[in-house]
Hints:
Elements: E1 39-44, H1 47-55, E2 77-81, H2 82-90, E3 96-97, H3 112-116
Antiparallel strand pairs: 1-2, 1-3
Amino acid sequence: MSTALNVYGQPLITCSTQPMTGFYRDGCCKTDEEDLGTHTVCAVMTEEFLDFTRSRGNDLSTPIPAYQFPGLKPGDRWCLCASRWHEAYLAGKAPRLILQATHKKTLKYVPLDVLETFAFENE
C-alpha cells in the first residue's frame, strides 16, 4: 500500500489515537476500496455536530463496548465519512478539521477552499 496523502498532497498525519479512530482503527483517516463510507475527514467533534449526526441516525456519543467504541465528546478528533461532513456543512453544523490528517480523497466531495475555511486553529 502506498503512502496515504492528505489534502495538500503530503503524507497523512495521525488524526487521533485517544480515542482510536480511522476505518482501520490505526489513528489515521486512510481509505481504500473496503471503506465504503469514505472515512477520510479528520474532524474535531462539537456538541452541535454530535447532535446533528445523532439526528441523522448515527449516534457517535453513546459508547458501544462490544465494538470497543468509547463514545465521542466535544474536542475528540475522529475520522468522519466525507459525505456526512459535507451534509453537516450544508446544514451549517460542520465541525472544524485537521487538514494535515484529512485524506486527499475528501477532495472528491468537498473543494479545498471550503475545507480550508474549517481548518482547526490549533492544527
